[in-house]
């Protein structure tokens, strides 16, 4: 199924029993949308970086997408049995190399090489996932991090000054953990004092509140310009902090933004565990924070883009609408009709089938012609005990009309692969 060697970014990877990267994913790694200043993802990256210039951060944006399991997982302390490591979640070139699943894979080397107190990394990341309007196997993240040294005389005073220098916002913040950032479930690291933990957390949170403010104020402006008259657009922006867990930070949180009547998860963060820093061969005196924000969903709001697949279209009617430094609202060039196909089958007891495996097979044959895949039915036959599943696949193109013939051909290949690789019996 896979060639003996995969060539990527001038390197050659010998495939093995871990290899699971389809060709269409390899093609995506060449696109580098975040480096295109006229693409919504690139415009959003610029907008964020612009707001943090002159504040002690270095900006990285050209790390290659292939990393080792060490960089993506081990050095960050992911347990061996973490589900993120599995072949149904992650794209492997071979046992040791994979497409990064998050920008945190580069924290280690940035901590090693960065000459500034902090840094930002923007990159394309890859995960097997559902197929719908907001999920795509390739997306973008921006990582931020900042360190201080316990050897700095009066480092607490330094952090306080750094907090003061973060521009103020009108954001309304709900944060039950502001004064007491750590507890038994979300503990402090021993090598930091209570006060260092408290101040570093405040610096982290104010930084993210500022980031969110700068981006979402723009999103509100553009929603208003596009004619939205919703009430919440005139109220101050609301965010809340919830506790989270990541293997390499503690305490950890997520920031959520109130948007169109919903709490929108937008960024995981926390205080970097000492282990990550000593792994990066830094002296034992360093401490600080890191965050990772997903760019695609924010760009969808900012530019009014209804479907994440549009970021990847090569249609000029998309590309022509966006310009460096400008937040504009996407004008749909037309919505082409879709074609619906159901696929139901009996599972073979011996071959477990993960939802992501179905999604992957559909992606492989349908590519960007798949709008979404929904598991619409599951049942167990009362007599035989056999399990049946049904998926509804909505085929739709962003750029043109589809024909029944081409969809039938794709759908046939999907069914054939389900039979071939998972021994299902099509009903
Ligand atoms: N890498 C995490 C994710 O993809 C986000 C994160 C970054 C969390 C840095 C903590 C610190 O969900």
TrEMBL record:
It catalyses: tRNA(Phe) + L-phenylalanine + ATP = L-phenylalanyl-tRNA(Phe) + AMP + diphosphate + H(+). One of its GO terms (biological process) is mitochondrial phenylalanyl-tRNA aminoacylation. Transmembrane segments: none annotated. SMART domains: FDX-ACB (SM00896). Coiled coil: none annotated. Signal peptide: none annotated. Its main location: mitochondrion. CDD domains: PheRS_alpha_core. GO terms for molecular function: ATP binding; phenylalanine-tRNA ligase activity; tRNA binding. It is an enzyme of class 6 (ligase). Keywords: Aminoacyl-tRNA synthetase, ATP-binding, Ligase, Mitochondrion, Nucleotide-binding, Protein biosynthesis, Transit peptide. The keyword Transit peptide applies. Residues 123-332 form the Aminoacyl-transfer RNA synthetases class-II family profile domain. One of its GO terms (cellular component) is mitochondrial matrix. Belongs to the class-II aminoacyl-tRNA synthetase family. Is responsible for the charging of tRNA(Phe) with phenylalanine in mitochondrial translation. This is Phenylalanine--tRNA ligase, mitochondrial. It comes from Hyphopichia burtonii NRRL Y-1933.
């Amino acid at each position: 199924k896979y060639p003996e060697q995969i060539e990527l970014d001038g390197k050659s990877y010998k495939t093995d029993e871990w290899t699971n990267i389809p060709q269409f994913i390899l093609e995506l790694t060449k696109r580098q949308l975040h480096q295109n200043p006229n693409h919504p993802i690139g415009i959003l990256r610029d907008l964020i970086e612009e707001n943090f210039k002159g504040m002690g951060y270095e900006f990285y944006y050209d790390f290659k997408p292939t990393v080792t399991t060490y960089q993506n997982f081990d050095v960050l302390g992911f347990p061996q049995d973490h589900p993120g490591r599995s072949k149904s979640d992650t794209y492997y070139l071979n046992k040791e190399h994979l497409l990064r699943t998050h920008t945190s894979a580069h924290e280690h080397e940035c901590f090693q090489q960065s000459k500034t107190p902090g840094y930002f990394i923007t990159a394309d990341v890859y995960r097997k996932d559902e197929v719908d309007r907001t999920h795509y196997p390739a997306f973008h993240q921006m990582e931020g991090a900042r360190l201080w040294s316990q050897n700095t005389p009066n480092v607490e005073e330094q952090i306080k000054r750094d907090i003061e220098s973060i521009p103020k916002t009108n954001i309304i913040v709900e944060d039950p953990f502001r004064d007491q950032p750590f507890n038994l479930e979300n503990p402090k690291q021993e090598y930091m004092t209570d006060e260092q933990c408290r101040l570093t957390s405040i610096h982290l949170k104010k930084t993210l509140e500022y980031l969110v403010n700068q981006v979402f104020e723009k999103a509100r402006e553009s929603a208003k310009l596009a004619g939205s008259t919703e009430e919440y657009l005139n109220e101050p922006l609301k965010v809340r902090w919830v506790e989270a867990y990541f293997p390499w930070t503690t305490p950890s949180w997520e920031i959520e933004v109130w948007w169109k009547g919903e709490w929108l998860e937008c960024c995981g963060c926390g205080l970097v565990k000492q282990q990550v820093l000593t792994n990066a061969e830094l002296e034992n005196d360093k401490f600080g924070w890191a965050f990772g924000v997903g760019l695609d969903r924010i760009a969808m709001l900012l530019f009014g883009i209804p479907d994440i697949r549009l970021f990847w279209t090569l249609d000029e009617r998309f590309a022509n609408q966006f310009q460096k430094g400008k937040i504009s609202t996407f004008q749909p060039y037309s919505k082409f009709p879709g074609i619906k196909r159901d696929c139901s089958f009996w599972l073979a007891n011996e071959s477990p089938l993960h939802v992501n495996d179905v999604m992957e097979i559909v992606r492989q044959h349908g590519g960007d012609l798949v709008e979404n895949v929904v598991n619409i039915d599951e049942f167990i036959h009362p007599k035989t005990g056999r399990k049946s599943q049904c998926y509804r696949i909505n085929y739709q193109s962003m750029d043109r009309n589809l024909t029944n013939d081409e969809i039938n051909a794709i759908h046939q290949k999907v069914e054939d692969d389900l039979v071939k690789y998972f021994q299902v019996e099509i009903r």
